[in-house]
What does this fold into?
Amino acid sequence: MDTAPILCPEIRIDNQAGWGAIETAFAMSHAFEYRQHWRKGEPDPLFRTACVRTGWQGGDFLIYAVLGDDEPFNKADRLNAYTWEMGDVFEIFLMPLGRTVYVEYHVTPENQKLQLRWPDRPETYKMPEEHKLEDFMLAPEIFFSRTSVEPVAKRWRIFCRVPFGSVAGETLANAAGTQWKASFCRYDAYRSGEISYSSTSPHEVLRYHRPQEWPVIQCVKA
It folds into this structure.
């Protein structure tokens, strides 16, 4: 049975606002909690709690995430490196409702990014044999992000401003009333080589590229 869209409120915030101001601005937004739904039981011993809150401003999707993490790190040192092979990653999946084209954006604790747009066809999460990953990479940098690594608190924080128009390569000046499918996933990596996987979407199996399980959000005016 279909469920009502999750409301994504209008938020007015500057990119250089302090973390306290960002936290306050997002306080009333829906909390997307990370889970390991595919495990059908207790989370793995390395799982750490994490939460994402969202909003919008003009034509931009705003994201604030707090990720519990014993040792935040990633070795990526350039745009579009293979971040998921190098350490911790925060992942954003965003798709216009009723379409199949979507973007996959990564942010590392050091604020390195990976940007991918998957083409407009149902099987996009499967790599076509005639393509390689680089064919779907986007450059230069498309979205704004900031990170804060906080070792004492054993966490890192992310603030992102993603142009909704970047999803389909179109201009969108005002997102009010629009609907999207959105998911936030992570690789919580350890220097030992172990990884704890989790997502805000109720995935039946450990595979993040399952848009049918991403919730719908709706941008609403303040």
Remarks:
- The mean pLDDT is 94.
- The first strand starts at residue 6 and ends at 9.
- The radius of gyration is 16 Å.
- Residues 6-220 form a domain with the Immunoglobulin-like fold (CATH 2.60.40.1190).
